[in-house]
Amino acid sequence: MNPAEVATALMIERTLQDSPAYRKVDDTLYVIKQGSAYVMISVVPWGDNRAMVRCAAQLVKGANIDGPLAKQLLELNGHLRFGAFAMDAAENTLLFTHTILGGDTLDPEELSATLRDVALIADEYDDKLVKKYGGQRMIDLLEEAAMERIMDKDPASFNFDD
User: Fold this and answer.
1) Measured between alpha carbons, how far is 8 from 102 in angstroms, rounded to an integer?
2) CB under 8 Å to 110, separation ≥6 — which residues?
3) What is the dihedral of CA 71, 76, 77, 82, to 10 degrees?
4) What's the half-sphere exposure (Cβ side, CA atoms, 13 Å) at 143?
5) What pLDDT was estimated at residue 161?
6) CA–CA gap between residue 146 and residue 149 (Å, rounded)
7) Which residues contact 73 (CB under 8 A, 6 or more apart)?
C-alpha cells in the first residue's frame, strides 16, 4: 500500500472503531451495517501516492430495471447531498455509491457524514425499491445463503460436546 492508502485506512479505523456496526474485512476493506443495508468501504489507490474512499451499498438484486425505475433513480440523484444510485448490469444489482478523497486530506467529519448518508439512503431505499420494482434486498440474499450453508451441513457433523 502507498502512504496515502495507509493514512486513509488508519483514519477509517480511528473514525469507526467505537461503532458496533463496523467490521474490518482486510487492510483496505471495511463494512458497516445500517438496518437492512451493508455499506462496503474500500480504500482504493489513485496514482502513485494518493487514495480514495469508495463507499458502496448493494441495495437490490433482480429488480425489474426498466425505463421508469431508471428515470426515478436519475431524478433522485439530482436531489441527493452525497452519492448516486447506480446499476451493475452484469449482476442485475442496484447500488448506492459515493467516493471521497483519502490520504492527508481525509477529514473524520467528512468521512462520518458520507458513511451516515450512504448507509441511511441504502437502508431506506432497499425496501422501497423491492416493494415497487421487485427483486431481493441484499440482506435477504445473505441470510438465504447462510441458511443454505447451514441446511447443507450433515447434522451428525455438529459436535455440541466441545
Assistant:
1) 5
2) 100
3) -160
4) 8
5) 61
6) 5
7) 85, 94
Q: What angle do CA 87, 91, 93 make, to 5 degrees?
A: 40
Over the stretch 97-151, which tens digit does the pLDDT of each residue have? 999 999 988 999 999 999 999 999 999 999 999 999 989 888 888 777 777 777 7
Please tell me whether residue 80 adopts helix, strand or coil conformation.
Answer: coil
* Grid coordinates given for 124: 431506506
Among candidate residues 41, 13, 20, the one with its CA nearest the CA of residue 119: 41
Q: Is the dihedral of CA 21, 62, 117, 85 positive or negative?
A: positive
Reported pTM: 0.84
pLDDT value at residue 157: 57
